[in-house]
């Protein structure tokens, strides 16, 4: 599996709300352990409540051993949840934490300790400050994300704070030490190589020599654009057009549409907010220019883009999104694990929207809970090392399997969605492993785009982690 495309975790400046980190940018239920009365109906019900998909006894009651770790008491575990909600007004990862904690705590918590999520609102620009706050009281950070997380990664490593993000943001943070990403880090590898290979070699081979990129003018998307300039030719395509649009927004997308038409671009990668893309597509449709395909980026995967783009543009243009090997929520009834999350949302927070980042957050929470439940004495080292032992993590069935034991394992599977006038539906990408295609095309970058920070970079080692 791969990380979400981090255009900017839920944001960008003003209209540039590039939500969802690198964002092509994982998931269970907890409950009571069987006791001597395991044969009774009540204990059978408890066991059922404790399971999520294929994961067993994720959360359960118990008598926890004493722990001297920060954020851990005899009755609770305090966990930071990073968000840019103060800037984006999008509570999706906070809602996911609320739902998971309610479910897990009702099942008994982590061996008897209740989960206490603490919102750490970076509001886009304050990640470093919020990391310092988390360093003062939290046991770990779980299920969250912040667009500019490079700002705080050094502080996090200095205070030896483990992190289980729903999606990482920037280069220094993605795959950094003391971090386990439920979707896999895949450091050094192009996260969407198989998706682009499918588009330009199979779905629309005539588009291979005419691929364009339009990116919001931000540090994050500029790096993505540079990586695409390397990746597309390596996959057999040709980048014939590249442009930036201002982060403050565009009043008239006609010049961009005319440029795409004059350059005869056939495939477009759009690294920006979906509201802007919807406006661009409306102009393209009005001038009578149809692209073979548009990569909306998975920030557009949801009902808002469908409503903004409108039926005319959606009928004229072929919009696709790689959703990172996560089982599509619109098909929840066909996948027990996804349906279980839908049911938990209905029970604990019925007004909350179950989004792709929320599903990834739920997977991160499941990963943490699974790792923590296996610790006799709850320590940061134990939880981190247990999480790193997962070699085929699926979040109980929420995603395609991913090996978490290596941060440099390339993506193995992908799945693509297509936007239609009635909503998002699975694209015809020829899945060969259930809902996923797992004959992955791996591409390792040769350019220098930076690398994740290590404990050694801040003068620490794993021996310092308690």
Automatic annotation (TrEMBL):
Tagged with keyword Signal: yes
The keyword Signal is assigned to this record: yes
Keywords recorded for this protein, A-Z: Signal
Pfam families, sorted: Peripla_BP_6
Leader peptide range in chain numbering: 1-19
Domain Leucine-binding protein: 208-403
Protein family membership: Belongs to the leucine-binding protein family.
Protein name listed in UniProt: ABC transporter substrate-binding protein
Organism: Streptacidiphilus jeojiensis
Lineage of source species: Bacteria, Bacillati, Actinomycetota, Actinomycetes, Kitasatosporales
